[in-house]
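Entry type: protein chain
Record version: 2
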Amino acid sequence: MCGFGVSIMTEFTGGDVYQAEFDPKAFLEYFKFGEDTWRDDFLIFILKQYCKTFTSGGVKGDTLIDIGSGPTIYQLLSACENFKEIIASDYTDRNRQELEKWLKNEPGAFDWTPVVKYVCELEGDREKWAEKEEKLRKKVKQVLKCDVSKSNILAPASLPQADCLLSALCLEAACKDLNSYRAALKNISSLLKPGGHLVMVIVLKETYYMVGQRRFSCLYLERESVEEALREAGYDVQCMEVTPNRSQRTFSDFEAVLSLVACKRPA
């Protein structure tokens, strides 16, 4: 695995690069469940955290907004049981199109069935996978453009504040430095009701990741930096879990994955 000293030279890949070069189909290769033990372990950790958060954790409400959905739905599989409507969002046109393809059940859409079955097994009934897919498709009401660097990240759309914000592997990829990360966290927080929950999955100490043959930059974050940014943005962390990366693969140099639930303090 490349060390920090080597990979820190990765040039920042901003929104224009994502729009032009981020290939959703290449990214979805990471989510072919059952084909690679390391990939499965990574995804299993995240899916178990979401299951715990949205079942026994009691995070629920009317509306959930997913920030930086990418072309994926794994992050919404447990959440769809606890919310009446879900708003998905992403910066790139191709990611939103790929997500819409699955939501509309169109030919050529990515097959999430193995992942959906695993989540249903976690929740106690593997055979309800088709029912869960249908439920999620009905509950995702919109797929919007989002830009976390803007104060209204979903402009020109304007939405009432949600009960829950979910964001996985997004802000650290979108932000060039710690100041822009803190600003982005505050920007997304404007969409959340006081007392509402922020659910995040974050990679720690990562400087790059690969999508196909393209290298994308990532903001090097330590746990303490994340905790400080959350406090500054008006959150109380309710739970946080970290799992180390034991892989020697070179498609990314992250050291750990952090999963957290935080509550937005009253104004």
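Comment: The first strand starts at residue 61 and ends at 67.
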